[in-house]
């Protein structure tokens, strides 16, 4: 296991960060706008969000580079901005962290389905490699491949990012099927854990798609199927429309109340995804500290 992860896990559970996208939406990001562009157009806002997580107790924060691979950026007409967006994303996060938290690069899906033949594996590999090289050279401490729904794409990303020698976290969305315990492509937590372990992931987990209560059993099943640490970042419940706006009903206190169950299920890294903010991380940190004292 990479030394950084060993250091973090020496006092596990580790608190990560909360949402970036919904925090930027609250600051004026337009629906359909690529959040990564704010690294260039509104860097102070991005830095403010990331710093708020560090101030709330996050030990790992992610860069605002979720959509910054060439394939995803092409959908916004921004493929030519790949280097600028990724470099700025790392610079902002490192400045916000100021040595108080590790900076992991957020790497998201391409937006094309490998299983459906919408993109070739070689093109995926090239896109992830290009982004990884830029991010690694800029000085990130590791990678968080997140919000993956296609296991095959996730495996390509893991294999590609491992070449940098930096720690690699990979996190899938389990929100489909009758029990809402499968990825969009029908993969179970057991299959995901087994295949991502074989692919060389350092940490395996789940994020987005559902609230924290729904990820307790998923966490338990991931933990039972791999010897790798488990990373969990749930939403603040499911989004709802209220007076023309998207809202998340789960409060920071409600969110934190489920953390002991997640820890018992085997989680080593805990944070939040859509709808969460610094108050959620602060509440989670308070719960984790009480748990450690026990």
Write structural notes for this entry.
The protein is α/β, with parallel strands linked by helices and 294 residues long. The chain has a single domain (3-293), classed as Homocysteine-binding-like domain (TIM Barrel). It is built from 13 helices and 10 strands. The strands form 2 sheets. Strands 1-10-7-6-5-4-3-2 form an 8-stranded parallel sheet. Helix 6 (82-97) packs across helix 7 and helix 8 runs parallel beside helix 9 (189-199). The two termini are 27 Å apart. The model has no long low-confidence stretch (mean pLDDT 95).
Q: Count the helices. How many?
A: 13
Integer average pLDDT: 95
- Cα shape: globular
Major sheet: order of its strands? 1-10-7-6-5-4-3-2
Category by helix and strand content = alpha/beta
- Name the CATH homologous superfamily: Homocysteine-binding-like domain
So, CATH architecture?
Alpha-Beta Barrel
- Biggest sheet descriptor: 8 strands, parallel
Total domain units: 1
Task: Give the CA-CA distance, first to last residue.
Answer: 27 Å
Brief descriptors of the model:
single chain, 294 residues, alpha/beta, TIM Barrel, 13 helices, globular
């Amino acid at each position: 296991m990479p030394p950084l992860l060993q250091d973090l896990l020496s006092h596990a559970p580790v608190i990560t960060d909360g949402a970036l996208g919904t925090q930027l939406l609250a600051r004026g990001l337009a629906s359909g706008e690529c959040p990564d562009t704010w690294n260039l157009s509104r860097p102070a806002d991005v830095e403010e969000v990331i710093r708020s997580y560090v101030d709330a107790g996050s030990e790992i924060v992610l860069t605002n580079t979720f959509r910054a691979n060439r394939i995803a950026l092409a959908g916004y007409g921004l493929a030519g901005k790949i280097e600028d967006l990724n470099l700025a994303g790392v610079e902002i996060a490192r400045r916000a962290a100021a040595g108080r938290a590790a900076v992991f690069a957020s790497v998201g899906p391409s937006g094309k389905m490998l299983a459906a033949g919408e993109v070739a594996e070689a093109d995926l590999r090239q896109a992830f490699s290009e982004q990884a090289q830029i991010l690694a050279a800029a000085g990130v401490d590791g990678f968080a491949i997140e919000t993956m729904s296609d296991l095959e794409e996730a495996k390509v990303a893991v294999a590609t990012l491992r070449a940098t020698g930096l720690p690699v976290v990979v996190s899938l969305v389990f929100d489909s099927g009758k029990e809402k315990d499968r990825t969009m492509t029908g993969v179970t937590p057991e299959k995901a854990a087994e295949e991502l372990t074989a692919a060389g992931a350092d940490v395996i987990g789940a994020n987005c798609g559902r609230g924290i209560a729904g990820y307790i059993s998923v966490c338990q099943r991931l933990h039972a199927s791999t010897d790798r640490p488990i990373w969990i970042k749930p939403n603040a419940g499911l989004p709802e429309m209220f007076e023309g706006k998207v809202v998340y009903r789960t409060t920071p206190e409600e969110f934190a109340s489920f953390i002991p169950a997640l820890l018992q299920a085997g989680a080593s890294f805990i944070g939040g995804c859509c709808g969460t903010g610094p108050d959620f991380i602060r509440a989670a940190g308070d719960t984790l500290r009480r748990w450690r004292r026990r």
